[in-house]
Amino acid sequence: MFELITAFDLNSFFSSHLGENAWIPMKVLLSTWESIYMVFISTFFSYVFGLPLAIILVTTDKGHIMENNPANKILGSIVNAVRSIPFIILLILIIPLTRLIVGTSVGTVASIVPLTLAAIPFVARLVETSLKEIDWGLIEAALSMGANARQIISKVLIPEAVPSIILGVAITAINLVGYSAMAGVVGGGGLGTLAYTYGFQRYRMDILLIAVFILIVLVQGIQLAGDKISNKILDKRR
Amino acid sequence: MIEINNLTKVYHTSAQDITALENVTLSVNKGEIFGIIGLSGAGKSTLIRCINMLEKPTQGSIIVDGQDISLFNRHELRIARQKIGMIFQHFNLLSSRTVFDNILFPLEIARVPSSEARRKVNELLELVGLTDKATGYPSQLSGGQKQRVGIARALANDPKVLLSDEATSALDPETTRSILSLLKDINRNLNLTIVLITHDMNVIKQVCDRVAVIAESRIVEINDVLSIFSNPQTPTSQSFLNAIMNKDIPEGILQRRNTDTADTISKLIRVSFIGASAGEPLISSMVQKYEVKANILYGNIDHVKDTPFGNLTMELIGQPVLVNEAMDFLFENGLEIEVLQNV
Fold first, then answer.
1. Smallest CA–CA separation between A134 and chain B, in Å?
2. What's residue A196's pLDDT?
3. Contact across the interface for B139 and A237, Cβ inside 8 Å
4. Which residues are CB-contacts of A81 (< 8 A; sequence separation ≥ 6)?
5. Is-contact A139 A156, C-beta < 8 A?
6. Relative to the CA of B76, which of A12, A69, A173, B130 has its CA 20 to 30 Å away?
7. Per the CB < 8 Å rule, is A142 touching B84?
């Protein structure tokens, strides 16, 4: 959809001004969109799975509201194991799984699967840290009122940790920008593919630099947005 | 209202077992303010947490309002806890919620219907005098205001018992007084049983009916507050009293004492008095009756629950026989006398 609209509006404008390089802005725009799309969707899904994982990691810990030592240890080991696989290897390792889920192992949509999978354990640890920052006194107060585990999670742990969790979302998204570029090298689409196939393989240094510049802008933008939202919530509570 | 029988709490760590409480037995009557005083590490914090089972006792029973809550399952315990309010030293208010929503919190937990809950919150805001702060966040409040929110929150489900965990320890003396008088009002008006722990004898003095002194994991003394103040039975109680009674006499004062002459002696005594005798002019009667001079060096008069009590450190100067007779006179009139230095 996006592709069609930009093609319709901008094609004639670019070709009349840039001549034989008219494809470049089009390609850059499309690649940028692909990158944003990949990062956004995989960030979203990594929190869909990572957030509950973090909650289980925290609450099953020793002395916590749902203490369960075996579950905590097993889950912790799995998270660590997945985190220790380098992304570029994970990418290749789960190709069968990617095919199973999206039907193909190349392209933007296919990249979302390894990106999400790589980010889930990262998110789990990140959110775990946020949740552990919460003063035990607040949990104790809720317990003293007769709150059950579900109420403590939904009314104390999550709301109290929101500003910190949002900063974590920014960190995750920024990480995924980097990972998505890596996925691009092996045909994942986005700015990574652009930089690799045009910039590196065809010796177009200008395209390589444009890709890097856009990546920098993306990362800055994400961090700025994360800080803004987090501070806005904290300001309200101040 | 609360019966604690042979409560023992042992923490197992990999290195060693630590006994936090040993054979604690005490009972708290309905409608009284019961204080537990002890130094940090004495076990008072563990003790108050056992009353609502935030800490599971290793041994012993805890009976609240006729039910042994140490035998309750998780569900029964949650229901029971709704009727045991608790306030904390560091308030433990949710920073993500407004003052109003913080007080609403326990009502949400108890699944009280919304309109009824909101009416209750407004009532409580009025009770603690924070109606104008309802939409503010806890971080915008002073320490005293935060504790008022804590108190309102603890009262939301109409508890039978209120547990106070060092609720005034983080507050300045002025604010402490106002929080304590709020607790006292609540105790009187709602006939609410309050158990409070503290390390400050002033807190005990201001609000408590009875007090338990805890030292090294054991209860060493339980008595009504006036008796503890007038006649402490253990060194621990004594040292808590000394801390607020200024019984330790400053060095300089002792040096200014008179020396004995050929026919007079000087005796340094401390006179403690309590209740009615505090109102009588016994010292001046003594001076008139016997030929002794009384040189008051140091003193302290205070009130515990409207009963005056205090002590005076003074020097009696005169002939040895008369000094002794004067002391007998004071003793016969119900004062307690302690000879500090017999020169």
1. 10
2. 86
3. yes
4. none
5. yes
6. A69
7. no
